[in-house]
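Title: Prediction job returns without error message
Component: structure pipeline
Severity: low
Priority: P3
Assignee: unassigned

Description:
Job completed but the reporter wants confirmation the result is attached to the right record. Sequence as submitted:
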Amino acid sequence: MAVTKREKLLRLWMAIVIPFLVVFVIAGASYLWQQVFPAPAGPQGPAGQNADPAVLLQDPAFLTAMREALAKIDRGTMPVGVVDVSHNAWNIQGTDRLKDNPVVEGWLARLKDPAPSLWKTFPNIPNTDVPEFRTNGLQVPDGLEYGTYDSPFCSSHPCDMPVGAWEYRYITGDYKFLDTGCKGEGGRGCMLILVNIMDQSYTFRDQDVDNGFTLRGRYFNGDALEWGIWGLVSNGAANMLNMPTLAHPGEVLNSGDPGNSGANCGNPEACSSVDVMVVVHAGDAIIAVAKTTVTRP
């Protein structure tokens, strides 16, 4: 088929203009990148020209600037508690959304004090030390799924904390969550539990955990979450405190001798106490925050 004069002119125009546009776009993108992410001043010339990343990571000024930049990240704000529903060892503060969630208010009121000596196993199997923990054969209708875990968690800083619909996320390690945080010092361990009661997943973005461990899974009965959360906090604390625990019936996880599985708190004898924070939320709306400290009996 013959090519018309108009088509020839169009092809010639495209051959001239398209390369020009490509060069223009690349140059513009490069300029914008330099404006948004300017190269840090480094030891190898102005604006860090040809700066070696390995050298920068050893530069105290560069590390200080990075820490300051991370500290300025807006992670969000923990809402103010308007109703105090604390009891026994639990300090529980409800937001203005708690009154609209009587089921959550109910199980929080029934939540028992942590008992690490009673929860040698995870609350995904029957517990003979807690006969009132409801069972159906080998199933635990009020327990939790031991889903997927990740360690070390949050290898990049900051990092995201996704919580699935009708799921929990368990995190241990030094963390910064919204405008709160926990740093393990003097043998203290840190535990953060996020419980999403909504039928949609939610991600808390730009949070931070230092070399942490995380576990996520479903809860089986949202009307009786006091059992799953009691077991999760108690069993998790037992592991962090180097108390006797079982990975499965008959399979020792921690026995106190010769050392702690996971080297919690960074030493073979594990932590001497654990600061716990449980955040109950529906998507991005926080309903209540429960805090306690667990120590060896």
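Comment from assignee: result matches the submitted record. DSSP finds five helices and twelve strands in the chain.
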